[in-house]
Amino acid sequence: MRRVVTALLACAFLLLPTQASALGARTPVGWASTGSGTTGGAGGTTWTVHTRAELKEALANRGDPAAPKVIRVVGDINGHEAADGSLLGEQDYAPGYDLAQYMSCFGEDGGTWSDTRYDYCTQQRRLRQTGSTKEKLQIQLTVPSNTTLVGVGGDARLLGVFLTVNTGTNIIVRNLHLEAPVDHFTSWSPDDGTQGNWNARFDAMTVITGKNIWVDHCTFTDGRFPDREAPLGFNGEHVQRHDGLLDIEDGSDFVTVSDSRFTDHDKAILIGSGDGRGDRDRGHLKVTFVRNLFTDIVQRAPRVRFGQVHVVNNVYRGRAADTLYALGAGLESAIFSERNVFAYPRGNPALVVADYGGEHFRDTGSWFNGRPAHLNAVASGLGLTSEVGWDPADVYDYRPLRSPSAVEHHVLRHAGPGRQYE
Length: 422
Description:
The chain contains eight helices and 30 strands.
């Protein structure tokens, strides 16, 4: 009798609406549920892949890439894996390239490049360019329309893969650990900012002109190659070898990122690629972030241009001294923040919001270090108005968790990969 009662209680628990995402919900919450909806490759061909070559073949789907398909990833797939199974490195892409020599061609202060500063400078410039092109061709894998890309179990990983969506629609990426690629040929731009900046090329995932995209139960991280272990560059700073973890650009729309983890990274998520892209982005970039965990993220969680972005029931954790901001309000953005938990010991709510040319930001009920965050007051101090011009409740159905303990309990228990989805 006790076993029967236990089984019935378990069934009742599984039916609780708040547990749907943790149990592999078949439909997303948020913007990805709107428009034509997001079902991925449901009902299509099923592939099971173990290598980069197999994954590339599955994405091509026997010459019909846009047909529905479910691609099950088993174990590790490395973007640098060659046809013979070996792993390619910097010298395979550009034999003779040397970061120290490349840097020396800018002078000791990194101020100006000169082809004639040393006899190897012209060669190093060309090697950096050709190496970058070859690395991109190797590690970039594009997900076509009507695809579900899902990890099997809790240990499926894409390592050093530059995963892209390029004009694809109706795509699900789920239950995967995505380790951001290391750009072996990152470029130094002395005129970028007040002291110059490194500009890496590759994200863990980029969505370009994609629509109805659902990223669910994934982990995004620098993983084995954190920037703090990169070589030192100019001004005593580490060379920046990573770009973003997840960028959403060029008129992409109807995207939900749910129950995922973003950890140990500088510039995490960028929505909208530039202030000058309003012709492409204005009226688009509708994105929901729900029940995600952000740990030790320096900035851009996310930074938004143009988009209508709903940030609800997420948890943010980090060291105040290492954090620039969480939510960046850029040009013509309309961020609706709701019941998020921010934990930055010895910090203050000013860490949450940053103004990058924006005008609109609204928060409802978020907490900072266990107390009401009063983020609308923070935003007002930056010159932002709380009139964002839209309300998620008018667009799609959702039910936010309403206490900080409930948000933390759910996110810490369920965010990230670890359950098998079929």
